[in-house]
Amino acid sequence: MKLINKKISTLLVTLLALPTIMQARDFRAADNHNSTYPTVVAVKHMGELLSSWTNERLGIKMYSGAQLGQEKDTIEQTIAGAIDINRINLAPLNSMSAETVIPGLPYLFRSVSHMRKAMDGAPGDKILKSLEQHGMIGLAFYDSGARSFYNTKREIKTPADMKGLKIRVQNSDLYISIIEALGANATPMAFGEVYTALKTGVIDGAENNWPSYESTRHFEVAKYYSLDMHALAPEVLVMSKISWDKLSTDDQKLVKKAAKESVTVMRQLWDERVKSSRSKVLANGNKVESSIDTAAFYIKMGPVYKKYASTNELKQLVKDIRAIK
Ligand code: GTR
């Protein structure tokens, strides 16, 4: 009798624990950068937080280095629920959400610290919220430093130096407009194809921050890097709404909390990586130009602001970002 009672109580304990066991899972996460890139390390850190808070019930399995595809493909998979967590740039979301375009407007942010404050505040929340109707939950923003032009042909100091250059851009109309406003030719292309395109002369240049210019080895083929710092748009961490809706409210809170906490780690890693990437590029003997006529670049952006900050709401978002001290 005792033995039967014991068996029944073991069964009861197992049954009671079942919902928790069933919820145990590793979220599939995607990033197009390699395993040591700050965004990837930060998402892994987020996974470690989740697993320590939940006794390993929740965690993250990171697929870095574009294993699950280029950003356009991973966004589709995220919306479909095949990828749970995705770290992407804001640019490939531009065609879905007009709000995501705003942080990419050239020279909108005065500095990286201005960008961090604005994205951590109400303007950032608004942009993250705008993704929900497209099947993604915006969890947090990660740093992406400043994007500047690099090319295989010549130094760029003024917009006139851009004339006729074939510049690769991300899949975003905003970036096409920026390049065209500067008198160059825009070629939208997936990130993973840029190295070969530079090497074979299909394009003359591209634009990116120090860590990406270095980690992709674009700096080995495009020697001229001109620090015009036209865009300080951040990266974004999103979760599939399908995956999100399957979580309990408590787990949703944990996911958000872990994402937010990973931002601190990311920023620290980012600042270190900017320095080390810069040193590597300089040691390679690249022509890095820092005396740039940024005012001349900014003046050319009038039509771009007009086209993309087109509604009252978007104009207000620009104002709100500018107002942040
Ligand atoms: C990087 C960014 C990537 C990707 C890439 C690109 O800075 O981290 O997510 O957007 O730029 O230019 O495609």
Can you walk me through this structure?
The chain has 325 residues and is α/β, with parallel strands linked by helices. The chain has helices spanning 2-23, 38-53, 71-80, 112-120, 122-129, 173-181, 194-200, 210-215, 218-221, 241-245, 249-283, 294-299, 302-308, 312-323, and strands at 25-30, 58-63, 85-89, 136-142, 147-151, 166-169, 185-188, 205-208, 224-231, 235-240, 287-289. The model is unreliable at 10-22 (pLDDT under 50). It folds into 2 domains: 25-99 and 112-143 and 235-275, D-Maltodextrin-Binding Protein, domain 2, CATH 3.40.190; 147-232 and 277-320, Bacterial extracellular solute-binding protein, family 7 (D-Maltodextrin-Binding Protein, domain 2, 3-Layer(aba) Sandwich), CATH 3.40.190. Strands 2-1-3-10-4 form a 5-stranded mixed β-sheet. The structure holds beta-D-galactopyranuronic acid.
CATH superfamily caption of the largest domain: Bacterial extracellular solute-binding protein, family 7
Q: Which CATH architecture of the largest domain is right?
A: 3-Layer(aba) Sandwich
Give the low-pLDDT segments: 10-22
Strand content: 15-25%
Percent helix range: 40-55%
User: What is the count of helical runs?
Assistant: 14
Would you list the SSEs in sequence order as H and E? HEHEHEHHEEEHEHEHHEEHHEHHH
Structural class assignment:
alpha/beta
**Average pLDDT for all residues:** 94
The CATH class designation of the largest domain is: Alpha Beta
Largest sheet: 5 strands, mixed
Number of domains: 2
Q: How far from one another are the termini?
A: 74 Å
Quaternary class = single chain
Radius of gyration: 22 Å
Query: Can you list the ligands bound to this structure?
Result: beta-D-galactopyranuronic acid
What strand order characterises the main sheet? 2-1-3-10-4
Number of strands: 11
Q: What overall geometry do the principal axes of the alpha carbons give? A: globular
